[in-house]
Specification:
The protein is of the alpha+beta class. It is built from seven helices and 45 strands. It is globular and about 80 Å long. The N and C termini lie far apart (78 Å). Keywords: ATP-binding, EGF-like domain, Glycoprotein, Kinase, Membrane, Nucleotide-binding, Serine/threonine-protein kinase, Signal, Transferase, Transmembrane, Transmembrane helix.
Length: 631
Amino acid sequence: MRAPWICSLFFGFFLIFSSISAQDGYIPTANLSTSWTNDESSIPFTNFVDGSRIRVILSGSKFMCGFFCKGMCTSYLFAIIIHRNDPMVIWSANRNNPVKEGATLNLTATGELMLKEVDGSSVWTTNTAGKSTSGMNLTGEGNLMLFDVQNLTVWQSFDHPTDCLVLQGQKLIPGVSPTNWAAQKDMYSLEVTAKGLIFYVGSNPPQVYYRILVDGLDQKSYLEFRDRSLCFANTSLNPNYCIVVISIPPAFTSDYIKLMSDGHLKSLQRGEMTNLPLGDLVDCSYPLVCGRNAICSADRQCSCPKSSSPYFRAVNDRQPNKGCSQITPLTCNATQNQQFIELANITYSTFTSEMKDVDVETCKQKCLKNCLCKAAVFKYGSNSSGDCYLPSELYTMTSLELDDEAPPQNMLVFIKVQNVGSTHSSKKKNKVATVVGSTIGSLLLLIVVVGIPIRFTYDDLVTATDNFSRKLGQGGFGSVFEGTLTDGSKVAVKYLQGTRHVEESFLAEVESVGSIHHVNLVQLRGFCVHRSERLLVYELVSKGSFDEWIYNENRKLVLEWTCRKKIILGIAKGLTYLHEECRQQIIHFDIKPQNILLDEDFNAKVSDFGLSTLVDKDQGQGLTRMRGTPG
């Protein structure tokens, strides 16, 4: 009775592995001037038992690289995988910016490897044009390399780790490997430095939560896997000597170590991912174990600061590890309406001394005057002075259980909160005042509903944009994705990126266009603040930007002069409204064809207010600093 079932199972596995073997062939090398298109007619799929698929570009006995996807396969990574029944991605070029069906990978005649979206926009590149590249190779250790005529490495994926470290062959060199070994964009990351390994969380700036410091490293030292350990080696000094930083248990049979989204280092052991020991780090030491603004107890229970207070609530009552949010968000430049919640018997794993030998009041006042400061963390000694830390993001804090034998703790955390306005109102109101008040309240409510943008959650926008898979374009401050809201309306979601100007651009756009409405200005539907991410949600303008029409080589898309005049007048009307009809003047600073959008009827809509400035009517002509697009 079992024979047919066993035969069918065997035959199924035979088909899977024969498909892989047929793709293997093994073709590990590619020449210049080669292009691969992500579609079925160019490269057929190789399927795996877990439902994932890959269009193989290069392959060897153990590793493959190509267009990789899972599930519905609406978006793809250019990735290197260990091919098994359940393949693991060990490196990807575009994990934060997946491409669509029809995207291309080009190894150009000038020696540059480029990934382009269907519309031809650049998604990722090795930036190696003109460096004498002669070909590309996927090595037996899983390293994607560009090499020159002397077979020397021009570029290699081993120098750009994403969230995995391959245990055989990969060497990470401090100061040379330019990218953090990161679990998620802007979340947990691990950096190889000249002082050892540094573990970070977040961004803008990142906070250090663990260090493995090593003495005696120099510019020729590097991190590698040797003798079942991660160690720092320097073969120029001693070929056999390696300073161990992390030991791999003997039972492990893994090919890689992975930095997980929870901050743990894991390796494969008997088919399961298992945590690697990191010194004295315990569960509560991981900054996001309970999420933001939360407290982790000794038995790893998550709670909000002073849950009985009106300042914090759980993000998700059923999942306390998702963190806590402030009921009344902080408002910049409103120190008179802010105060602190004091927490004692607390430790904070990312504490870094920013000011030394100051008193606690100085520390708190510095936080009040700093708009980005979320808390004043004060670590004091035997006297009243101590060290002060002002984090711009407040992660999980750890509460300590005190007993008679435990020494007193010397850290205080003062969380900055916005005062809740008085809810008391006079009961001595006559009927007329009540009617008038109700009428004014209704009008104010209408203004709020109509005029203020909606605050979306990050999950809302992930769903609306199909995990940011429908890219419309890219600008100086980030990428724009097409989305569909729950009410069916089409939107353009601007995903701001970078750390230097992103906050300024975000605040400028929300402040300038969040409360204005004009037929010749693009409408801001809403915004999202999620961890270090900043997103803006605009109405989708169907005809694209003006430059796509006036610079298009397709003569069928030439605009008639009457249409051009209509567009020019629309731009003028929008700018007139901004400059003369608003209560505060709005100076755009970056008017150009790329920032003029056209709707279905070719009405012009001014967009991209990331460099704009609000100016009081009596401020005069004092703005002289150069801004906008150079040239």
